Amino acid sequence: AQTVTQSQPEMSVQEAETVTLSCTYDTSESNYYLFWYKQPPSRQMILVIRQEAYKQQNATENRFSVNFQKAAKSFSLKISDSQLGDTAMYFCAFMGGSARQLTFGSGTQLTVLP
Amino acid sequence: DGGITQSPKYLFRKEGQNVTLSCEQNLNHDAMYWYRQDPGQGLRLIYYSQIVNDFQKGDIAEGYSVSREKKESFPLTVTSAQKNPTAFYLCASRGRGASTEAFFGQGTRLTVV
Fold it and tell me: Which residue in chain A has the smallest CA separation from B48?
């Protein structure tokens, strides 16, 4: 079974600054997919970015980018030019194997300060 | 509009009663999931289904049951055997393709009194 660990329960960042959220995972699968989801106060889950494990190039979506280190089983999210609307709970998620079970970490509450 | 709908948004039940949470999607997705969210514990998988008439237990299936008689629907029943049912419940669906994202409903907040 796979596990996903987010070791930072809470983080804060000043508006316009850069912040990095950490995620590590454990799996015996060789082919899998990783995701970052955002949950704002409305509690609606929103996909931020995805990464295929077979791709060496790190995914980027506008101000969001990942640092994917497959050997270290690490998948961190970098948010550049932080905005007040980035305040949310961020979840790292893993999907792999034939069962296609989608497993989430415990989340990091990010607060962007004005 | 295509999407995934959970109802109701808030649900109150007396202890010892079974309750069923609704999840419907019109995205033509094969896979559907139920998660429980508690403060500080993230999303924990209760049950998931990859195809009609088939489903698998997740990490915390005890005290819950599901059915998948139609592709569009994946209702979750919280039974009286669930010791601490008060929580926020999220339903999600995914299309075919390993890298496709999961789409989530808006959740149901269940309070057992």
Answer: A101
User: How confident is the model at residue B95, as a pLDDT?
Assistant: 87
- Chain centre distance of CA B105: 9
Contact between B104 and B35 under an 8 Å Cβ cutoff? The reply is: no
Per-residue pLDDT band at B1 (split at 50, 70, 90): low
Q: What is the mean pLDDT of residues B83-110?
A: 90
In angstroms, the separation between the Cα of residue B106 and the nearest Cα of chain A is 5
pLDDT confidence of B19, banded at 50, 70, 90? very high
Chain A residues 71-100 with CB within 8 Å of chain B: 91, 93, 95, 99-100
Q: Specify whether the CB–CB gap between B107 and B7 falls below 8 A.
A: no
Average pLDDT over residues A62-82: 96
Do residues A76 and A22 touch, judged by C-beta distance below 8 A?
A: yes
Interface of B with A in 38-57 (CB under 8 A): 40-45, 48, 50, 56
Q: Is B97 an interface residue toward A (CB < 8 Å)? A: no
